Amino acid sequence: MSRDQPSTPLLSVKHLSKIFKVRQGLRQRRITAVDDVSFHIHEQETYALVGESGSGKSTTGRVLLRLTEASSGQANFAGQDIFSLSAKPLRTLRQNIQMIFQDPLSSLDPKRTIGYSVEEPLIIHGIVGRAERRARVERLLARVGFNPTDAGRYPHEFSGGQRQRIGIAKALILNPRLIVCDEPVSALDVSIQSQILNLMLELQRENGFAYLFIAHDLSVVRHIADRIGVMYRGRLVEEAPTDVLFGAARHPYTQYLLASIPPAHPRQRAIAPRSAPVIQATGSFTGRGCVFSDKCPLATARCLEQRPADRVIGDRHRIACHLG
Q1: Could you tell me which of 7, 42, 100 has the C-alpha nearest to residue 241?
Q2: What is the Cα–Cα distance from 197 to 204, expressed in whole angstroms?
Q3: Which of 17, 121, 164, 282 could serve as a FRET partner for 233 with CA atoms 20 to 30 Å apart?
Q4: Which phi-psi region, left, alpha or beta, contains residue 231 (left: φ > 0; alpha: ψ -120 to 50)?
Q5: CB of 177 closer than 8 Å to CB of 44
Q6: Residues in a beta bridge with 48
Q7: Are 192 and 160 in contact, with CB atoms under 8 Å apart?
Q8: Other beta carbons within 10 Å of 234
Q9: Confidence class for position 178, pLDDT limits 50, 70, 90
Q10: Residue 177 three-state SS
Q11: Would you state the torsion angle of the CA atoms of residues 120, 124, 125, 131, taken in this order, to the nearest 10 degrees?
């Protein structure tokens, strides 16, 4: 992770929105998955997007990779407007932006060996000859913990943690500048999670790329992220450096997320306070005010009627709240 950030971001996202149109019988419903989201990521930085299921964080990552198209907004990567690129320059761009998926098994071809799966991006982009491709694959598989003979085995022969290491190798083979990580450890046991996160940090220090790390668990991103953006019902409600967010979160929803993290000590867990209720998004927000206003115990009439604007309340600390 890099704390020394350059003035020009590697990725700059401004007013990003994604609306899905879903037909229900004779009627068409509009679902706003991402609503006017803005953030940036610097070279070698890890920026985490955190929120519960349905908050729009994964959709944000998919839109930035053009796996689904944005409804509005801008995204600039290293001087290129991502959303205006035609097929050929977009293909070139994807050499520099890769993705690690939540379920590595679904992203690996079960009929292909893991060696071929890791090599495939090099084949698609026509990079180097066959001998050099194989050498790169062997070096990279060795770096993430495999033996040379493992390249001839198939995905089903490996554990979940091992498959995620294969997914990481596949994302790294093109030497990208940014890796989008969509819940990369949520399906793994806690002990395996720490191994994968440590590996990701080591690889980042060695190769100097940036992460957009998408997760629903604040405790997971605490030790890997430089900055954290908190999403709820498609909107970014708070953003701050990791230590600031954990020490002085201001948005009520962020405070609830922090209160929901189980204490590390079993005795503390047994007597944990019950002040934080279960907060769940109920889908696309259709009201005029704050997206959290119908759940927030501090909400006022203004919160129900007026959408809060982003406010800067400290060093790189933004909040969308009338009260915070």
Answers
A1: 42
A2: 11
A3: 164
A4: beta
A5: no
A6: 213, 228
A7: yes
A8: 27
A9: very high
A10: coil
A11: 50
Q: The sheet that has 178-182: what strands, in order across it? A: 97-100, 178-182, 210-215, 46-50, 227-232, 235-241, 317-319, 311-314
Residue type, 18: K
Backbone angles phi, psi at 129, to 5 degrees: -85, 175
Mean pLDDT for all residues in the chain: 88
Provide the CATH number for the domain formed by 11-96+176-319 in this structure.
3.40.50.300
| CA-atom Rg of the chain in angstroms | 21
Q: Give the type of residue at 204.
A: Q
The DSSP secondary-structure symbol of 32 reads: E
pLDDT tens digits along 232-283: 999 999 999 999 999 999 999 999 999 988 776 544 443 333 333 444 444 5
pLDDT in tens, 3-60: 555 579 999 999 999 999 988 777 888 999 999 999 999 999 999 999 998 999 999 9
Note whether 10 and 210 are within 8 A (CB): yes
Place of tokens 């401004």: 14
- Angle at the Cα of 60 (from 312 to 98), degrees rounded to 5? 115
For residues 125 and 121, what is the distance between their CA atoms, to the nearest angstrom? 6
Name the 3-class secondary structure at 101: coil
DSSP 17: E
* Alpha carbons 86 and 200: distance in angstroms, whole number: 31
Pairing status of strand 311-314 against strand 317-319: antiparallel
Q: Domain boundaries in the chain? A: 11-96+176-319, 109-174
% pLDDT > 70, the chain: 91
Instruction: Tell me the C-alpha distance between 92 and 125, whole Å.
Output: 8
The residue written with tokens 């180097």 in the block is 128
Contacts of residue 324, Cβ cutoff 8 Å, sequence gap at least 6 = 238, 250, 251, 252, 311, 313
